[in-house]
Design a protein that fits this description.
Blueprint lengths: L6 E3 L3 H12 L5 E3 L16 H10 L3 H6 L9
Parallel strand pairs: 1-2
Length: 76
Amino acid sequence: MLKTKVVIVGAGPSGAATSLMLTKLQVPHIIIDKAEFPRDKTCGDGLILLTFRALRLIDEKLLDEFVNHKDFVHSN
């Protein structure tokens, strides 16, 4: 049985960002979601520019890892 004081319900953008920040702060937590991963989510197909700023704020290397991922497609 897992025990924790912090549970994040939902692994969408907000839940994932919260989990990343808690990890950075070394706060033990559990994140749960009703879906199985990996999942295809079309709402993640397009990102606004503020997303890139948020990724950089969470972790300096996170944005670079994201845009250099083999599955990342730049729009023209």
